[in-house]
Structure formats: C-alpha cells, structure tokens
C-alpha cells in the first residue's frame, strides 16, 4: 500500500537488497529489515540497457500472452521489461530467495483465496509488496507481507502495540489484505483498478476514472501517480517470474524443512516463547522466525485467539502441554516455584526428517497426493524440482516427513532443563556447577509461576524481587495475566 502511506513505489524493490535468509537456522539474518530504494532512483537503471543475449524478448512476450490471468491484461512495455530484467538478470539471487519463500506462504494465501472464491493469482501481489517477507519494513513504516501502514492496518482489524504487530502475522495480515482488495473490487468491478487502489488508495483511482472517463486501467493510467502507473507492470513482472522462473534456470532458495513442514494452532492465553521452547525442544530463534508478529517473545492473552506456527514434528508436544494446562487437569500440580537452570538447546533439527518415495498412480494429481500425504503442492514441487504439475503413472516423488513426533509428559523432567542446586530461594544464588553441568554461558535463572495472576500480584512471592526490574527484564506490563508454568526471568544477583 505504497501511496496510501505516501511512500514511492520503490518499496516493491526492497527484495533486491533484502539480506533476509530464511533458509538459515539462525533467525538473525531472516529477521533483518529489508532495505528500500526509490523507484525514481532504480527504475531508469533498468531501462538503460537493451535486452542482452540471455534475454529473449520475443519469447518473453509470447509467454506473457499465454498467461491466463483474470486480474490484469498481461501487456508488455518498457516498464514491464525493466522489472522482468531486474528479476532475471541483475538480481537473480534475490529472486531465488523470494521464490524460496513461496513454499511457506503461498499455501496459506491460496487457502484464504479459495475460501473467499477470489482469483488465485492475487497471491502474486504479496511478491510485489514484500517479496514474501513478513519481516519487511519500509522506510516510512509499512510492514509485513502486505505492507500495511499502521493506520490502515488498524482500520482492517490488525492489532499493533508494544507486544504484537499483526501486520507481520501471515494469517491475520492476509485476511486483512483480502478484505481490502474485496472492498475495492466491489467498488470498481475491475481487478486492475482494485490493485491500483491497493497501492494508491481509492480516492486517487476514482479521480483518474473521472478524468479519463474510463474504467480501463491502461486508458486512465496517465492520470494516476507515477508509482501507481508502475504498480500494475510490476505485478505483471512478478507474475511472469512465478510462472516462468524454471525456463530461466532460476533455482528457488528454499528454507530448511523445519520452516516448511509446519502446523498452525490458535493460542488464547498468555504463552511465552521460552516456555514454548521448553515444551517443544525447539531453538527459540525458530519460533521467532515462524511467528514474527510477537515483538517481545510473548503471545499475549486474546479472546479471539492468536496464531502460533511451529514445525509439525513438535506440534503433538505443544498440544499435550495445552491439554495438560486445562483447568480440570491436575498437571498444574507438577510444576512448582523452584528456580531452574535453562540450558540452550543444541538439538540438531536437520536430522528430524526422513525422505520417502511415493509412486504416482494412474490419474493422480499433485493436489490429491498432497492431501493424502498431509503436505502441500508447493512442498512436493520444491522437494522434487518439478518442471511441470503434470504427473505420469509410475513417476517417483520424494516426500519428507517428520522422523518422529515429540510428545510432552507432565510427570517427566523437560530436557534439556535441570533443577538448580539451591537450598532455598533466599538470595537465589547458583551453587558451583557439577561435572557435566550446562555451560554457564548458556544459563539464566528463571522462576516458574505457580498460580494464576498478574506480575504486579505475583512478584511478591519472589524474595528480593522488585516490580520495575521484573517488568524491564521480562518485557511485560504489570497487568499481564500469567498462568501456572509461565517463566519469569530473575536477575542472578538476587
């Protein structure tokens, strides 16, 4: 939503300088904010050079004409050419990373589009907006897969505060974006104009229609702001990339399997990432990458529910834990207020998957196979580097599945966490480590909440604790609701 925010359309080009690497196990790189270049600066650079030997313009035009797209007439002009060349020639690595993210976010977007009976190719708009990077932040504050500005995001029901930014939530931001697009389509009855309104706002589009006396985007294009005139060509170029990247030998840079094979649940009560890491054995950075909406590593209480995305292999453990925390369950009694030493998980998640071979049967489609194997079409395409969605009888497909599903048992100690050898709570000093104890560099002292309440109410149970220090250390407000099993960080000097 570039023009809504007053930002030149250069934000679309964020992906060209984006250093985010989701395929890395470390979240630090993926969490990097995308840099932005103004279209006014970068676009003439695209148009200076004529098509090179690796760019067959006639073939590109022919392919564009063959794309069936109910949204936009796939015209080819100098602007479209400039964007296509940017994808194919100068920034191929960035295009490969954007393509790699399709396996994460296209299945989700397609599901919401199908529910609303909206054109599937609307998913390519997220490529234009953010290169499918939910962490993307524009210079003026547009955020997420769909690049909402704060005001527009709030207007469409997205929560933005010190703890949550739902513009980064893949599920909620997609629903909000489709709400916006649906409203614009109802107003104009034309998808090209709806896309233009997504970029510049309906007011500018309506004025262009009035001046041009037409509802054809290409006829009234000259009456629109420059960034909006180039927005539809950018969408056409993104569509071409997604449809024909294989023909240009662009290899998607897919993320690790823990990011691909995921499951989503709704969480209604306060839940910390540190607790999720305890229950599932996941490195906290994996949780952060998959759930970028939560700023402080905490999922706050929400009566409507907050989305939590985790690797599928650990979801049984999470569900076991959530079941154990039900009010009518006795599991709460198995957690006391004894401080524990937390060791950083060194679990090798790359060894948690097995590769299987599936033999295609007569008449089977990718969609049918994906449904029976509980994966997605995009995953099968990625795992097998398929050049076509057409399958042949007897064709072998590689399928990845979790080697085992982690379970949570309340009666057992949760490795890799061990009780600290403390005689009492007074002073909360850590005794000398015994042989085989965790490296102190990976330790911190925590307090396990025993009863429901707020931080303001419960902090008095911790000898020597002060409310301001706990608020600062745990990054939660004093009225944040806590529940048994939640963790509070405690300064080691207490």
Describe what this molecule looks like in 3D.
The chain contains 23 helices and 12 strands. It is an alpha+beta fold and 494 residues long. The protein folds into 3 domains: 2-248, Lysozyme (Orthogonal Bundle); 257-348 and 409-489, no CATH class; 353-402, LysM domain (Membrane-bound Lytic Murein Transglycosylase D, Chain A, Roll), CATH 3.10.350. Helix 3 packs across helix 5 (78-90) and helix 8 (124-130) crosses helix 15 (231-244). The longest helix has 19 residues, at 170-188. The model is unreliable at 2-49, 328-347 and 411-444 (pLDDT under 50).
Protein traits:
single chain, alpha+beta, Lysozyme, Membrane-bound Lytic Murein Transglycosylase D, Chain A, four-stranded antiparallel β-sheet, globular, disordered N terminus
Task: Give the topology, please.
Layout: H1 2-5, H2 27-30, H3 39-48, H4 57-66, H5 78-90, H6 92-100, H7 102-116, H8 124-130, H9 150-155, H10 170-188, H11 191-200, H12 202-212, H13 217-220, H14 226-229, H15 231-244, H16 257-260, E1 262-267, E2 271-272, H17 273-280, H18 284-290, E3 298-299, E4 306-311, H19 315-324, E5 340-342, E6 353-359, H20 366-373, H21 377-384, E7 396-402, E8 417-419, E9 445-448, E10 453-454, H22 455-458, H23 467-474, E11 481-482, E12 487-489
Antiparallel strand pairs: 1-4, 2-3, 5-8, 5-9, 6-7, 9-12, 10-11
Short description:
The protein is built from 23 helices and twelve strands. The protein has 494 residues and is of the alpha+beta class. The radius of gyration is 25 Å and the shape is globular.
């Amino acid at each position: 939503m570039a023009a809504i925010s007053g930002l030149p359309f250069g934000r679309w080009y964020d992906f060209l300088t984006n250093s985010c690497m989701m395929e890395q196990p470390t979240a630090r790189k993926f969490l990097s904010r995308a840099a932005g270049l103004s279209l006014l600066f970068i676009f003439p650079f695209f148009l200076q050079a004529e098509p090179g030997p690796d760019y067959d313009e006639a073939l590109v035009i022919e392919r564009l004409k063959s794309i069936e797209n109910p949204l936009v007439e796939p015209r080819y002009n100098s602007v479209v050419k400039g964007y296509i060349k940017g994808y194919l020639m100068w920034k191929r690595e960035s295009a490969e990373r954007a393509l790699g993210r399709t396996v994460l976010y296209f299945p989700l977007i397609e599901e919401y589009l199908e529910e609303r009976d909206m054109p599937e190719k609307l998913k390519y708009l997220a490529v234009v907006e953010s290169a499918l990077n939910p962490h993307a932040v524009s210079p003026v504050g547009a955020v997420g897969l769909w690049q909402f500005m704060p005001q527009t995001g709030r207007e469409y029901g997205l929560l933005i505060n010190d703890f949550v930014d739902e513009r980064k939530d893949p599920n909620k931001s997609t629903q909000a974006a489709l709400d916006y697009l649906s409203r614009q389509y109802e107003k104009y009855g034309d998808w090209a104009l709806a896309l233009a309104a997504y970029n510049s706002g309906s007011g500018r589009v309506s004025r262009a229609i009035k001046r041009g006396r037409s509802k054809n985007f290409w006829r009234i294009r000259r009456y629109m702001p420059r960034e909006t005139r180039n927005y539809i060509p950018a969408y056409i170029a993104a569509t071409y990339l997604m449809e024909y990247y294989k023909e240009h030998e662009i290899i998607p840079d897919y993320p690790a399997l823990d990011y691909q094979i995921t499951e989503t649940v709704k969480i209604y009560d306060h839940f910390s990432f540190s607790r999720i890491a305890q229950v599932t054995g996941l490195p906290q950075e994996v949780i952060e990458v998959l759930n970028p909406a939560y700023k402080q590593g905490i999922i706050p209480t929400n009566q409507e529910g907050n989305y939590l995305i985790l690797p599928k292999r650990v979801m049984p453990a999470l569900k076991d834990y959530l079941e154990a925390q039900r009010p009518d369950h006795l599991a709460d009694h198995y957690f006391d207020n004894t401080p524990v030493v937390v060791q950083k998980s060194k679990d090798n998640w790359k060894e948690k998957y097995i590769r299987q071979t599936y033999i295609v049967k007569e008449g089977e489609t990718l969609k049918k196979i994906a449904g029976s194997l509980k994966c997605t079409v995009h995953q099968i395409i990625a795992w097998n580097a398929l050049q076509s969605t057409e399958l042949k009888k007897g064709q072998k497909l590689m399928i990845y599945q979790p080697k085992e599903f982690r379970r949570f048992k309340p009666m057992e100690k949760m490795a890799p966490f061990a009780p600290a050898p403390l005689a009492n709570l007074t002073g909360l000093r850590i005794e000398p480590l015994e042989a085989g104890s965790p490296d102190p560099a990976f330790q911190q002292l925590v307090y396990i909440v025993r009863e429901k309440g707020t931080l303001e109410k419960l902090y008095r149970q911790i000898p020597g604790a002060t409310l301001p220090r706990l608020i600062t250390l745990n990054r939660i407000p004093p009225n944040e609701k806590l529940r048994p099993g939640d963790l509070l960080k405690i300064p080691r000097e207490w």
